[in-house]
Amino acid sequence: MVSQTIDLLKEQLPVDQQPLILSGDVKTGLVLVDVVNGFCTVGAGNLAPRQPDKQISRMVEESVRLSRVFTEKKWPIFAFLDTHDRDTPEPPYPPHCIAGTEEAKLVPELLWLENEPNATLRCKDCIDGYLGSVEKDGTNVFVKWVENHQIKQILVVGICTDICVLDFVCSALSARNRRLLSPLEHVIIYSHACATYDIPVHIARDNKDVIAHPQELMHHIGLYIARGRGAQIVSEVSFQ
After folding, report:
1. Peptide bond before 49: cis, by omega within 30 degrees of 0?
2. pLDDT (tens digit, 9 = 90+) per residue, 179-195?
3. Selection from 108, 104, 139 nearest residue 124 by Cα
4. Consecutive H or E run containing 238
5. If DSSP codes are grouped into helix, strand and coil, which group holds residue 189?
6. CA–CA separation, 124 and 128 (whole Å)
7. Quick one: pLDDT at residue 182?
8. Which of 2, 3, 10, 127 is deepest in the core (most CB within 10 A)?
9. What gap in Å lies between CA 165 and CA 58, rounded to an integer?
10. Three-state SS for 208?
C-alpha cells in the first residue's frame, strides 16, 4: 500500500532528472551536507540509523566517489559537519552530533578530507548550512568559498534530503537570486547521493511523540520542493 502511494505521488509530483557530465569548462564546487557518523553510521547516536540502510549507504558511497574525483582534479570541496554544544538543544530533535564526539565527525570513509588542502570543513550548529556559515562579524564562510574559487555551480549531496540539504539549497538559491553569491549560477542536487531517515507510519502510531517519516516518500518530497525553488536535480554524475 505504501509503495503504491509513493508511486502515485511520484506520478502526480514528478521530479525531472537528467544525467550530469562535469568538465573543467565550468567551475564546479562539491558541497557535502552532514555526512557524519551521527546521521550515517549505524548506532552512532540518537539520530543515526538503527540498522544498515540502503539509501544512506548509497549516499555515502556516492559522496566518497565524488570527493575522490574532485580531489584528483583539484576542484573545491565544502563539507558541512553538524556539530552542537551539549547544553544547547535543537528542538524538536534529541541531542545529537555533540561537539568533540565521534558523532560530529565525518564518516570513516571521508575522514581523509580533514587533511585535504582542497577541502573546507565547516561545523554548523543549525539545520541550514548557509546560516551556519555566518561568523560573529557577519561574514559568511560559504559565501567567501564561492567567491574565492569563482564557483559557477555547486553539486550538493548529503543528508537529510528534506531537512538540512533542502534548507541549505533554498537559502543558497535565495542568496544567488539576491546576488549575494556571485558568481554562482546553478545549484544542483544529485538525488542518489542524498538520503533521509526512515520512521514508518506503523511505528509512529505507537508513539505520540514521534512523527512518521517514510524514507522514500520524504526523500522524493525534498527533491520536489528543491526543484520547485529552482534547483536542478540530476540522476547520475560522470566526468569528462
Report:
1. no
2. 999 999 999 999 999 99
3. 104
4. strand 232-239
5. strand
6. 8
7. 96
8. 127
9. 16
10. coil
Amino acid at 9: L
Q: So what's the pLDDT on residue 2?
A: 64
Dist CA 36 CA 103 (whole Å): 7
Closest CA relative to residue 192, chosen from 166, 221, 220, 153 = 220
Residue recorded with cell 554524475: 237
Integer angstrom CA distances of residue 140 from 130, 131, 175 = 8, 8, 11
The amino acid sitting at 41 is T
Q: Tell me if 47 sits within 8 A of 95, measured CB to CB.
A: no
Q: Which amino acid is at 1?
A: M
Torsion angles phi and psi, residue 93, rounded to 5: -90, 150
The three grid cell numbers given for residue 187, joined into one nine-digit string: 545549484
Q: Which three cell numbers stand for residue 141?
A: 564562510
